[in-house]
Design a protein that fits this description.
alpha/beta; 9-stranded mixed beta sheet; 5-stranded mixed beta sheet; about 55% helix; binds NADPH dihydro-nicotinamide-adenine-dinucleotide phosphate
């Protein structure tokens, strides 16, 4: 694969051509300033509000988006991706004519068919692998940052050269630019967000939970794992030197330990899950689901955000930040050598630990608030749980709420309680609910695996189901969208289960 640098790009291609930067947010501001500083003709298209004010303050001519679309030769679409399809068809497409160039900073809307520009324009990609602030700071520092470029439509037969010139204008060819398709850019971006990132997040929460359960001080655990900034520094070194080379910066004990024990974590299931995730992305199923979710006002996103805020790790981080200040790496060093003087020395540390643990212990109680069901006080034995489940499953078949959920749906869920022999199935099919103890007759679309106490907690309202997914208390395989859809019947499940439970306990 070729990596393009300054000498591969010609800014003269953009001379006397008006560039309109549409949107003056993270990328818009940084790219507009860099392009202007590279000697190019730039104006900003924005609604008349704060962002427009900022662009004016920075010395740009600011015009309405339609005016920018009509007047400019190159249009850089730098507004949020979820806004872009509507704005493009309303304010931009009617003003396009032959020879114009539409530039995207992500392949998403073109790759998944949400924007279809007319055939008489060039459509190119200039996608920095850098946040907006970095795009500007690195430009000013005389350094570069990588970008992906791509061509979706080449009406002028010169689209790639134009994309390279723009990449040079924003300062990216100083470091290196790689050509990809719009689909590749979008899929790689989503894969990082949906597979690599969350897998890493679970690695972190699993490690934190395990170490806390084993009695290590929470403060030490978070600092050790990532809040000292040491891990972030190591990631920087991996980028700079390479995964293996950077290991030479660590002690010999570390090298021997991580390489000899690392093989333990070669878990084939991780790859299987990543393939599932990639398939969802490539097929466009994720993009369609996300479009529908936004059209509905993003209720699932809201529920996920709320659940994430209740993760014990979030509370721990808050506590630690209050203790150490905003810059963990610096605060860490200071704290080690000089504990805060204003408080009562070592007991300050103890107080923090016990306060944090108290908050975590209180967490289930705090989460009862606002739920309809009463918390269950007793832990169920396996035989009690079996009886509760039998009654619950009989009642579930008759439930009007579950039958409504089953309308137009084909979903079999298989629950496995890994600390017992218990498993059960619920099938939602064309308005009907069928249930049974044991595995389903044919493979389920969603398999949920958890422990008896977690299921009991969820079905009695003591444990937030989304949080149980996020914290790893419950795991699932199958379609994420289907698994998340079960959230819609949480209240019904809770009521049915609690009724059944009350007759047993
Ligand atoms: P921002 O959220 O920072 O964009 C804000 C801009 O969009 C403002 O000018 C805002 O103006 C405008 N905007 C928001 N809503 C509307 C609306 N309804 N109608 C008209 N204008 C609107 O976006 P980013 O800079 O983060 O992202 C821009 C593009 O860059 C995206 O395609 C993104 O994928 C891509 N990208 C982003 C990266 C990043 O690090 N952020 C990295 C690489 C690529 P106002 O609200 O005032 O109208």
């Amino acid at each position: 694969m070729h990596v393009y640098h300054d000498e591969d790009a010609d800014l003269k291609l953009l001379a006397n051509r008006q560039i309109a930067v549409i949107g003056y947010g993270n990328q818009g501001r940084a790219q507009a300033l860099n392009l202007r500083d590279s000697g190019l003709q730039v104006l900003v298209g924005n609604r008349d509000d704060d962002y427009a004010g900022r662009a004016s303050d920075d010395g740009f001519k600011v015009v309405p988006i339609e005016t920018a679309a009509a007047g400019a030769d190159l249009l850089m679409i730098l507004i949020p991706d979820e806004i872009a399809p509507e704005l493009f068809s309303r304010d931009i497409a009617p003003h396009l004519d032959a020879g114009k160039v539409v530039v995207f900073a992500t392949g998403y809307n073109i790759a998944f068919g949400f924007i279809a520009p007319p055939p008489f324009v060039d459509v190119v990609l200039v996608a920095p692998r850098m946040i907006g602030a970095g795009v500007r700071d690195l430009y000013l520092a005389g350094r570069g940052f990588p970008s992906f470029i791509g061509v979706a439509q080449d009406h002028s037969a010169n689209a790639k050269a134009v994309a390279l010139a723009l990449a040079k204008g924003i300062g990216s060819t100083r470091m290196g630019v790689v050509e990809v398709t719009f689909a590749q850019e979008a899929e790689l971006d989503l894969f990082t967000e949906q597979c690599f990132g969350p897998a890493f997040g679970h690695l972190l929460t699993t490690s934190v939970n395990l170490l806390l359960e084993e009695g290590y001080p929470p403060e030490a655990v978070l600092l050790e794992l990532y809040m000292s900034g040491e891990f972030a520094y190591t990631l920087g070194k991996i980028a700079e030197l390479g995964l293996v080379e950077q290991s030479m910066l660590h002690s010999r004990t570390s090298q021997y330990g991580s390489m000899s024990r690392g093989i333990r974590f070669v878990i084939p299931e991780l790859r299987t899950k990543m393939i599932e995730g990639l398939e969802e992305i490539r097929s466009g199923r994720f993009a369609q689901e996300w479009a529908a979710e936004q059209a509905a006002g993003a209720p699932t996103l809201q529920a996920l955000r709320e659940a994430a805020q209740t993760l014990p790790l979030v509370l721990l981080e808050q506590e630690l930040r209050q203790t150490l200040g905003d810059v963990p790496a610096a605060a860490h060093i200071e704290y080690r050598s000089q504990p805060p003087a204003s408080t009562d020395g070592p007991t300050h540390h103890k107080g923090w630990l016990s306060r944090t643990l108290d908050r975590i212990r209180r967490l289930p109680a705090r989460m009862e608030k606002g739920t309809k069901s009463q918390p269950a006080a007793d832990t169920l034995s396996e035989s009690q749980m079996e009886e509760v489940l039998r009654r619950f499953l009989v009642n579930a078949r008759q439930s009007a709420g579950l039958q409504a959920f089953a309308q137009g749906r084909e979903l079999t869920t298989h629950y496995l309680l890994r600390d017992s022999q218990l498993e059960f199935t619920m099938r939602f099919h064309d308005g009907e609910v069928t249930t049974g103890v044991g595995p389903p007759p044919s493979p389920a679309e969603v398999i949920l695996e958890t422990e008896m106490k977690v299921l009991d907690g969820m079905f009695t309202g003591r444990i937030n189901a989304m949080r149980a997914f996020m914290s790893g208390e419950m795991s699932f395989s199958g379609e994420a969208k289907l698994a998340i859809s079960i959230q819609q019947i949480q209240d019904d499940l809770r009521q049915l289960y609690t009724d059944a439970r009350n007759t047993v306990v």
